Amino acid sequence: METCGSSKKNIRSKDMLSTLEGRVTNLEESMDGVKETLKVVEGCTDELDPMRMQLRDNMVIRPRKKIEKNDTLKVMVVALKEKTKAMMARIDELEEELTMYRVAIGKGMLASVPKKPRIDVPKLKEFQGM
Known about the structure:
Elements lengths: L3 H109 L18
């Protein structure tokens, strides 16, 4: 036999049980929503992986390649400067040689020009007094 107090306890227990069942149902629905959101997030992270790799490439690998290219360019510039110095020295030598040739040719031309012969032309008597 049930007493009045025990039936109230049963009703309260049933109410608590139905409340718990409602909460479990809500929790299960929320979990379904979380699972769907998780799938969306996983899809986004799958899209982000190639971007992450590209970013790593841009931040780590490419700067190394640029540094290597930069070093190569520096070596090339140094080599070009050395060649330029050598060429400038050679140009100076050639200019000195050209100057010597010009002087030699100038002296030779003066020496090779025949002197004008002096011809004594008799003067007319009219002009002898002058």
